């Protein structure tokens, strides 16, 4: 059985809703299946270059908004394994008709949903439940010198974070505003 793949208003940004099976033993859902039409529609023929896991303890914490500059752009397939986050993608592709627009979804362990963020879009999230854990599939390797992003509180983006932001890293606080990006 196939998953459901919903394209957002930002081209290439998808919400993937998995089929969830549950019985007396527990539950099962597929996170990634190369031949599934929904995954093929969203992921295309990209490879998986790395898999990351994040654990964020405190409610209100924001991580992001991060991306890598071309030619090191990477797509990310993000799913919440435990807890709940408000996940945001921002289009930073200079020639995109949706440049500077953002889209957010709530990802939770019970939702059986993943968020596919394409190359050139920044990604970040705010923790809604303590000890939230995310799993990321990346289409490209991490290249530290290609890292960039945009500030979570950029007035041009005007992202209405659901909670008062807390526990940001120094790196995230030092990210540029949208108007300062190359």
Task: State the gist of this model.
By secondary structure, this protein is mainly beta. It has helices spanning about 35-45, 170-175; strands at about 5, 15, 20-25, 25-30, 50-55, 60-70, 75-80, 85-90, 100-110, 115, 120-125, 130-140, 145-150. A hairpin with a 2-residue loop joins strand 3 (about 20-25) and strand 4 (about 25-30).
What's the structural blueprint in terms of helices and strands?
Layout (H helix, E strand, L loop, with lengths): L3 E4 L6 E4 L2 E4 L2 E4 L7 H7 L6 E7 L5 E7 L7 E7 L1 E8 L10 E7 L4 E5 L3 E7 L4 E7 L8 E3 L20 H4 L9
Antiparallel strand pairs: 1-2, 2-10, 3-4, 5-12, 6-11, 6-13, 7-10, 7-12, 8-9, 8-11
Tell me about this structure:
The chain has 182 residues and is mostly beta strands. It has one domain: Jelly Rolls (Sandwich). It contains 2 helices and 13 strands. A 6-stranded antiparallel beta sheet has the order 1-2-10-7-12-5, covered by helices on one side. A hairpin with a 6-residue loop joins strand 1 (4-7) and strand 2. The radius of gyration is 16 Å and the shape is globular. It starts with a strand and ends in a 9-residue tail after the last helix.
CATH architecture: Sandwich
The N- to C-terminal Cα distance equals 44 Å
Order of strands in the sheet with the most strands?
Answer: 1-2-10-7-12-5
Structural class: mainly beta
CATH topology: Jelly Rolls
Mind describing the biggest β-sheet?
6 strands, antiparallel
How many beta-strand runs? 13
Task: Assess the beta-strand content as a share of residues.
Answer: 35-45%
* Parts with pLDDT < 50 across at least 5 consecutive residues: none
């Amino acid at each position: 059985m196939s998953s459901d793949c919903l394209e957002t208003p930002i081209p290439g940004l998808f919400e993937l809703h998995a089929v969830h099976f549950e019985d007396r033993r527990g539950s099962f859902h597929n996170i990634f299946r190369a031949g599934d039409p929904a995954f093929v529609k969203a992921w295309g023929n990209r490879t998986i270059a790395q898999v990351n896991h994040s654990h964020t303890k405190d409610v209100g914490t924001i991580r992001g908004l991060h991306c890598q500059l071309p030619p090191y752009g990477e797509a990310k397939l993000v799913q919440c394994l435990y807890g709940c986050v408000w996940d945001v993608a921002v289009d930073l592709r200079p020639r995109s008709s949706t440049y500077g627009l953002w889209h957010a979804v709530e990802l939770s362990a019970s939702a059986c949903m993943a968020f596919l963020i394409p190359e050139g879009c920044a990604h970040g999230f705010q923790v809604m439940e303590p000890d939230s854990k995310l799993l990321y599939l990346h289409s490209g390797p991490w290249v530290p010198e290609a890292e960039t992003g945009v500030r979570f509180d950029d007035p041009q983006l005007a992202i209405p974070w659901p909670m008062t932001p807390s526990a940001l890293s120094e790196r995230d606080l030092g990210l540029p505003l949208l108007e300062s990006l190359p």
